[in-house]
Design goal:
The protein is of the alpha/beta class. The protein has 2 domains: 2-112 and 276-344, Periplasmic binding protein-like II (D-Maltodextrin-Binding Protein, domain 2, 3-Layer(aba) Sandwich), CATH 3.40.190.10; 113-272 and 346-385, 3-Layer(aba) Sandwich (D-Maltodextrin-Binding Protein, domain 2), CATH 3.40.190.10. Helix content is 43%, strand content 13%. The protein is built from 16 helices and 10 strands. The strands form 2 sheets. Strands 1, 2, 3, 4, 9 and 10 form a 6-stranded mixed β-sheet that branches. It has a 4-stranded mixed β-sheet with strand order 6-7-5-8. Helix 1 links the parallel strand 1 (2-5) and strand 2 (31-34). The protein is globular.
Length: 388
């Protein structure tokens, strides 16, 4: 059984622990490859006619899942009871794994709540600012800057800043604009999207190390300076999974950090939340592959990783007392209480658009003054990416 996913390091260890009961029960040898360049690797294999594709794999997002199914690479998951699966996930999440013809082609094994603002409890008392403007303009003392940001991720460099843009768009302009933009109907040069880019440019100017540091530092090291002595920044904007990296990369203890949900930008969109999830798809239709895909949707499987930390189950039947930390439990509650929930925008866009969005974020970090040319290029890509 061959598996490719994005998880490396401690995340890989947790995934292996998650599937170990299935491995033992089925007496199966698993060949696992973890890579942050998963999208590029799988895309190349599909372009080469499927040579080298694994039996099952992590899928970067719904947009690529639909593309790869339409190309004949991903197999239908019609053996999974969709009603039962859908009923055990947050509203609307299961449907994101369906192709245009309604066939299920991807399942969620892990959820992520985005728009979380993390802090070192030794440097901030936890008083939540009423608005994002208040947060962004806060005195960073005792830290050197308001924000820590880092977006290096191999071929996927830039993706953490796409999350920033998405969180700003839904809070600033609302879910309808967000949906229209993700669908390729609202131009990147529109006032709504330009406003989001300008606000992120302001964040770059208030970030530890500036653009050079942001582009050169791996996304998993984003919290290192927040826990340094003296601290380099006061806050980190990142999804729920980052708590694992605070412990493993920054050497923080779970009691050293906490978070609050990103404050409102426009109160008309109060409670709007973005999130994501790790999808799995099947490239080779075998009995073992089918069995593993079914196992990955179960609360029993997902509870294993939840107990290890840095994980929010996609299956809502995972009990709250299973979670390893208060932060994981709080993130799960935020997901359940959102007034409007939207999936990660870049992961829902066509592959060409997704890649261009990542690249644009690297350019924005390099020089926020180049917003006009960056957005114009994204408009050009949008015109072709959605016309396929």
């Amino acid at each position: 059984m061959s598996i490719i996913a994005s998880w490396t390091g401690s995340e890989e260890d947790s995934f292996r622990a998650m599937i170990q009961p299935w491995v033992d029960e089925n007496e199966t040898q698993v060949i696992y490859a973890g890579t942050r360049d998963m999208q590029a690797l799988l895309s190349q294999a599909i372009s080469a006619g499927g040579t080298g594709l694994p039996d099952v794999a992590g899928i970067p997002g719904p947009g690529l899942a639909r593309e790869w199914y339409a190309a004949g690479a991903l197999k239908a998951l019609d053996f999974i009871d969709f009603a039962a699966y859908s009923g055990a996930t947050p509203p609307g999440m299961a449907e994101l794994g369906q192709a245009e013809d309604g066939v299920l082609v991807g399942i969620f094994t892990k959820a992520a709540v985005k728009g979380l603002i993390w802090y070192n409890v030794n440097n901030f008392d936890g008083t939540v600012p009423a608005t994002f403007e208040e947060l962004n303009n806060m005195d960073p003392a005792p830290a050197g800057a308001v924000w820590c940001n880092s977006i290096e991720s191999g071929a996927a460099s830039g993706w953490p800043f796409t999350d920033w843009i998405e969180d700003i768009v839904i809070r600033q302009s609302g879910p309808e604009v967000y949906d229209s933009w993700v669908a390729g109907e609202t131009l990147w040069t529109s006032p709504e999207i330009r406003d989001a880019f300008e606000l992120l440019g302001d964040v770059v100017g208030k970030s530890n190390g500036g653009g050079t540091y942001i582009n050169a530092t791996n996304f998993g090291d984003v919290g290192n300076e927040m826990f340094a002595d003296p601290p380099g920044c006061k806050f980190v904007h990142q999804a729920s999974f980052i708590s694992d990296f605070f412990v493993d990369q920054a050497g923080a203890a779970p009691e050293d950090f906490d978070f609050f949900v990103m404050p409102d930008i426009d109160t008309a969109n109060a409670g709007a939340l973005t999130g994501g999830g790790d999808m799995f798809g099947m490239f080779n239709d075998t009995p073992q592959a089918r069995s593993l895909m079914e196992y990955l949707t179960t609360p029993e499987a997902q509870a294993i990783w939840a107990a290890l930390g840095g994980y929010i189950a996609a299956n809502t039947n995972v009990a709250a007392d299973v979670y390893a930390s208060d932060s994981d439990r709080k993130a799960a509650e935020a997901l359940q209480n959102a007034s409007a929930f939207r999936f990660d925008g870049s992961d829902s866009m066509p592959g060409e658009m997704n890649t261009a969005f990542f690249s644009a974020m690297v350019q924005l970090a390099t020089d926020p003054a180049n917003i006009d040319s960056i957005l114009a290029e994204l408009d050009t890509v949008q015109a072709s990416a959605y016309d396929q």
